[in-house]
Every structure is written in C-alpha cells, then in structure tokens.
Amino acid sequence: MKTILVPTDFSKNAENAVDYAIHLAKTENAKIILLNAYYVMYLNPESGLDFMVEQGFAMRENSAEKLKQLSDKIEKTEKIECEFISIEGMTVDSIVEIAEKRNVDFIVMGTQGASGIKKAFMGSNTVKVIGLTSRPLIAVPEKASFNGNKSIVFATDYQRSDMKVLKELAEIAKKLNAKIHIVHVVNGETDFSFEEVTLKNFADKVKTKIKYPLVTYKLLYGNDVEKKLSEYLKKEATDLLGVNTKNRNFFERFFGKSITKKLAYHTAVPLMVFHHN
Fold this sequence. Notes:
By secondary structure, the chain is of the alpha/beta class. The protein folds into two domains: 2-140, 3-Layer(aba) Sandwich (Rossmann fold), CATH 3.40.50; 151-274, Rossmann fold (3-Layer(aba) Sandwich), CATH 3.40.50. It has nine helices and ten strands. A ten-stranded mixed beta sheet has the order 3-2-1-4-5-10-9-6-7-8, sandwiched between helices. α3 crosses α5 (125-132).
C-alpha cells in the first residue's frame, strides 16, 4: 500500500490539501499520514521557564487533539487508513525528516496566494521542501480541487531522467484513463524543423519504454515560456502539471526571476514535482 504524507497547520488552505490527498488516496489505494509540526520558543527572555514549559505542553496537546479528530474523521467518513504524527520542530525540517523515515510515496502540501506562481510557490515552505526532499511532491494551490486528473501535462527539455518521471505519471494515468500531454516550449528563433525532429526522437524513446497509448506530444513556439505554457494549460483544462526538478534548465526557466502574473491561471493547477537524477 502506498503512503501519502500531508503536512497541516489546520488552516483552510491545508484543509484543501487534505481533501486533495483523500481523493488521491482513493485512486492510489494509499494510506494517509497527517503531520503537524509545532515550534516552542523556550528561550524567550521575557517569559519565565514555567510559562514556557506550560506553553510547550499546551501546544503538544492541541496538536495531538486536532490531528486525532481529523484522522478519525477521515477513517470514519472516507474509509481510508489514516494515522497522525505530532512533532516538535521546524516545519520544513520535520516534513523532510518524516518523509524519509516513513518512506512515503507522495507529499501533498497546500500553497497560498492567487496573484502569481512566484507568490504561490516560491514564497512558501513548499518550495523549501521541494529543494530538500527526494520524494514526489504535489503542491495544491489554494483554489485547486481534485478533478480526476483526466488531463496531465508534463513539460520537458528532453532530459534522460524524464523517462522515469513519465513512467510514474503513466502509472497514475492508467488508473484514471487520463491523457498525458508532453510539451516542450521552443524559443521562437530556433529552427522549427530541427525541433520537430528532436521531439519525434524523444517520442520514439518514450514509446519504447512506456506502453501507454493516451500520450500526445506538442511543441509550443514562442519567446515567452510562461505565457505559452499558461495558454496551453488553460486550453487543455489541465488537472495536473508535472515537472522534473533535476532538469535545472527547465526548472529555472519556469520558476526563475522572469516569472510574472502571466501565470496567474496556473495557480489553480496542482503541480507534481519529481526528483530524478
């Protein structure tokens, strides 16, 4: 049975990620581990030792109580195996630590903000976890919902490790009878015929390694990578966007300093991040 780790701070945004994880768990026949990390400021000089000890105890009690209530609700209402972990520590460090210790298959985290990708992903704990964990992570934007993942887009720059990512995406797609759209964004000044041959060669390699028929291939031409990809996501009514973080060239192009409000639409699309060398 697969395992999904869902960090939560009990906020509305975290509730949305939990709901997404529940749907994913049903699809993947997975169990859920809820995680809440709390941090106690023991060295506050303005507070007495007794007060700080009481504060730490109260935070532990509150964390465990809320987690148990949520876990019991998921098991009773959704019929999904669920456990919880309450841990004292920094949020990002705790998520990475538990994900490795429990050998989880997915991390599902909520993100905040609806004014652009940079605010939604780069300014949160989510991107910090992405940079530290080796586990696949799904970043669920504030207003996103699980729509069955019928349309999955994977953006590639033809990295060898992309094959491993596509194999994993294909396993998810098979259970949902979903389409996988493999896209490559081309600089408008690049030779079109060369790009078409390159894409065909990549497609041929994919077909030899992945036996899944519902895969399409598309070149997106234009100097504005963010705009082209955003337009395509909207056109295909995308349910999930997959990327490979070891593909530094694409990842930096996509999440770099040039990101603008052109990708505001994308904040409604969950992002699935893989880590393959």
